[in-house]
Amino acid sequence: MGLTRSSVGKNAQDSRLSIHRKRPDDLVVALAGNPNVGKTTVFNALTGMRQHTGNWPGKTVTNAQGYCEYDGRGFVLVDIPGTYSLSARSAEEEVARDFLCSDTPDAVVVVCDATCLERNLILVLQTLQITKRAVVCVNLMDEAKKRGIELDLEALRSELGVPVVCTEARRKKGLSDLLSKIKEVASLPPENNSFPSFVSSEEIVAEAERIYNMCVKTSDCGYTEKARKFDRLLTSRITGFPIMLVMLAIIFWITIEGANLPSSLLSQFLFRLEMPLYDFLVAVNLPHALSEAITFGIYRVLAWVVSVMLPPMAIFFPLFTLLEDLGFLPRIAFNLDRIFKKCNACGKQSLTMCMGFGCNAAGVVGCRIIDSPRERLIAIITNSLVPCNGRFPALITLITIFFIGAGGGISSSITSAALLTLLILLGILATFAASRLLSSTILRGLPSSFALELPPYRRPQIGKVIVRSVFDRTLFVLGRAVSVAAPAGLIIWIMANITYDGQTLLAISSSALDPIARVMGLDGVILMAFILGFPANEIVIPIIIMAYTAGGALTEMNDISSLSALLIQNGWTWMTAVSTMLFSLMHWPCSTTLMTIKKETQSLKWTAVAFLTPTVMGIAACIIFNLILKLFI
Question: Which domains does the chain have, with CATH numbers?
Answer without folding.
Answer: 3-221 (3.40.50.300), 240-632 (no CATH)
